[in-house]
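Technical annex, item 7. During the second reporting period the consortium partners agreed on a shared format for inverse folding records so that results from different sites could be compared directly. Each record opens with the tokenized structure and is followed by the designed sequence. A conforming record, contributed by the partner at site C, is shown below for reference.
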């Protein structure tokens, strides 16, 4: 039986090829049959899948997944206002307010509604600079800004303006941890130590 490493060291490792990150294929990605495509892109880059499950968690699981700090929530509101301003839209007319402190919680609610609209596929990816590498493969958060060749650039056309007008979250297919602290929190939030598997890919000695 393969050894399993302790979860507390999930991303805080001495060697860069053992860095870990969390990836979550969102309900729109699952419904469009893109889970396999996401895994394929990570594995062909030399990254290793060490945990995987499909679940349909409730709102509380996502409430605890996303930051609750007021500054983070306010930034959601500020980004929304910025998008409205860029395209000449009136937030008061469409959202009833132009206060980012009020809009932020609305956007967070839309995100949780989106994330609970269907099952999600959650996985842990390990490899060389896995956090940055996965985000490079996935592409920018906003699909309309993502380059062709990235996961979001190839499979999504959504934009914050369209999402805000329709009062919903951006449908951007996939989530990937942004930094080591976030990855550590998210891996511990979604997986137990026993669910993380330690094994060696056949080409590791050649690639690394």
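Designed sequence (site C submission):
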């Amino acid at each position: 039986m393969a050894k399993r490493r302790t979860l507390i060291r999930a991303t805080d490792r001495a060697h860069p090829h053992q860095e870990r990150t969390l990836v979550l294929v969102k309900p729109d990605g699952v419904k469009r049959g893109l889970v396999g495509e996401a895994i394929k892109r990570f594995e062909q880059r030399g990254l290793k899948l060490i945990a995987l499950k499909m679940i349909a968690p409730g709102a509380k699981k996502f409430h605890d997944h996303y930051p609750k700090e007021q500054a983070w929530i306010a930034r959601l509101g500020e980004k929304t206002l910025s998008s409205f301003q860029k395209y000449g839209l009136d937030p008061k007319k469409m959202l009833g307010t132009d206060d980012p402190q009020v809009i932020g919680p609305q956007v967070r609610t839309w995100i949780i509604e989106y994330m609970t609209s269907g099952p999600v596929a959650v996985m842990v990816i390990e490899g060389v600079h896995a956090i940055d590498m996965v985000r490079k493969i996935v592409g920018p958060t906003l699909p309309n800004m993502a380059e062709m060749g990235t996961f979001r650039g190839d499979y999504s056309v959504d934009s914050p303006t369209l999402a805000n007008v329709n009062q919903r979250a951006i449908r951007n297919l996939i989530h990937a941890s942004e930094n080591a602290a976030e990855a550590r929190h998210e891996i511990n939030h979604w997986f137990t130590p026993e669910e993380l598997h330690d094994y060696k890919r056949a080409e590791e000695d050649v690639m690394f």
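The radius of gyration is 18 Å. The chain has one domain: 7-201. All partners now use this format for quarterly exchanges.
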